[in-house]
Amino acid sequence: MRVALMLTCINDAMFPETGKAVVRLLRRLGVDVEFPPGQSCCGQPMTNTGYLDEAVPAVRAFASAFEGYDAVVVPSGSCAGSVRHQHGLVARRAGDPALQDAVRRLAPRTHELTEFLLDVLEVEDVGASFPHSVTYHPTCHSLRLLGVGDRPARLLRHVRGLRLLELPAAEECCGFGGTFAVKNAETSVAMGTDKVRHAVGTGAEVLVASDNSCLMHLGGLLSRERAGMRVMHLAEILASTEDQPASVLTAPTLLERTSAARGARS
What we know:
The chain has about 270 residues and is α/β, with parallel strands linked by helices. It folds into two domains: about 5-120, no CATH class; about 135-265, Rossmann fold, CATH 3.40.50. The protein is about 50% helix and about 10% strand. The chain has helices at about 10-15, 15-30, 45-50, 50-65, 75-85, 85-95, 95-105, 115-120, 140-145, 150-155, 180-185, 185-200, 210-225, 235-240, 255-265; strands spanning about 5, 35, 70-75, 110, 135, 165, 205-210, 230-235. The protein has a four-stranded parallel beta sheet, sandwiched between helices. Helix 13 (about 210-225) links the parallel strand 7 (about 205-210) and strand 8 (about 230-235). It is globular and about 55 Å long. The termini are far apart.
């Protein structure tokens, strides 16, 4: 089985450790994952704001980069949802039968990470170790658009040493919503503040999610409030082992990650 990693824009620019974690995890499970260098944005920023014509080049680029793979793994419910549910709309609007065929082939082969682990590999215990308390935030697209359900929790419950604490009002949106956070900043911050309050109230050391876009929003709020809670992508926890641990004590805060990303580009 030929498997490709779709890293996503935000991970490429700001959270490269998530992509590295996915590769370590999949290789540990015997998957020879590849990274197609021609990949780019999935087009979600355009499609979510109604610019469907502008999204056509991004959908073409995705189809070209990932054609020929048996599975595409995405560490983001948001971007996986875009491929599965928005690319078809964009391709139909473009009126290009070849692009429509490519999208139809790729959509069912594109999996959010937890879907791939449980539904394709049929693995629930990935051999991870993370001796810390965590609470899990189910992001909107993974929860509602993809319907990943309890897959992340099932994986976390098998992580050695991990204590999973229930997040109150877990299904409420964190308020990020891409451009929503820019266009409706006050509402976005209010929603994020509610989510952070619930997360801190669990007493967990780490707030976990499967979308770094949401963690960026929540991590910023936690950093500004000096709440003492770290944010980590689910993939980084699942990739952690006793031999190669991902310690919450050394995991950078959102502000530290942002500063490092800016420094790398300067």
